[in-house]
Design brief:
This protein has an eight-stranded parallel beta sheet. Helix content is 40%, strand content 15%. It has one domain: Aldolase class I (TIM Barrel, Alpha-Beta Barrel). The chain has eleven helices and eight strands. With 244 residues, it is α/β, with parallel strands linked by helices.
Length: 244
């Protein structure tokens, strides 16, 4: 079985100034094992002032156009100029709070790939959808919409069970593994076995230092998308160590 390097992504959302972000990097410096890739998505204002050592910086979102009269937005070119190498797309908060559609996320994914920004594509179902046993249907639709017409490309998937974000609930390792296995089988049908085997699929539902080790043992869970726990340097390092 192909061994994929674990990827741990910190999504800081609307937290930390540039100075606070750089202080965080100082706190984790020298504590990241070489066997794990660490990605950090800080606020846009912190991107260009951070001096990463051993971590990869990225954006939390981006516009699908190269430039234009889009007040408050940021383009792929601007992200790259600020030091970003990846971008989060389709995060549940963008879908729910900012009404981003599957079609819009598809456009953003195309732009990220053509701009050589690694897309971290987020997918996931709500509590209502899970209770109605629609998880597979919801994820299938999100994946089809996002990846339709796109040639095989390097992407990272992040499964976010929306019902487990900020609620203190976490999908059991077995539940998470079942969904990750489904996502990999979807990619296999779409892009072939080789691409599916290489693609990292992360779990993103209230990951903590306590839950990380059990998640890491699952064969199709290749890391974590971490929200609140990534704001604390000590907790974040513990999560990283849980995936060694």
């Amino acid at each position: 079985m192909l061994k994929r390097t674990p990827i741990i992504v910190a999504n800081w959302k609307m937290h930390k100034t540039g100075a606070e972000a750089q202080e965080f990097l100082t706190q984790i410096q020298g504590k990241i094992p070489s066997s794990v890739k660490v990605f950090i998505a800080p606020p846009f204002t912190a991107l260009s002032v951070m001096k990463p050592q051993g971590v990869v910086l990225g954006g939390q979102n981006m516009h699908e156009a190269d430039e234009g009269a889009f007040t408050g937005e940021i383009s792929a070119r601007m992200l790259k100029a600020a030091g970003a190498q990846f971008v989060l797309l389709g995060h549940s908060e963008r879908r729910r709070l900012f009404h981003e559609t599957d079609h819009l996320i598809h456009q953003k994914l195309q732009k990220a790939i053509s701009s050589q920004l690694l897309p971290v594509l987020c997918i996931g179902e709500t509590l209502e959808e899970r209770q109605a046993k629609k998880t597979v249907d919801v994820l299938s639709n999100q994946l089809k919409s996002a990846l339709s017409g796109i040639s095989p490309a390097e992407i990272v998937l992040a499964y976010e069970p929306v019902w487990a974000i900020g609620t203190g609930q976490t999908a059991t390792p077995q539940i998470a593994q079942e969904v990750h296995q489904f996502c990999r089988s979807f990619l296999k049908k779409l892009w072939g076995e080789e691409i599916a085997a290489k693609t990292s699929i992360l779990y993103g539902g209230s990951v903590t230092p306590e839950t990380a080790p059990a998640l890491a043992k699952q064969p199709d869970i290749d890391g974590a998308l971490v929200g609140g726990a990534s704001l604390d340097a000590a907790k974040f390092i513990q999560i990283i160590q849980g995936f060694i």
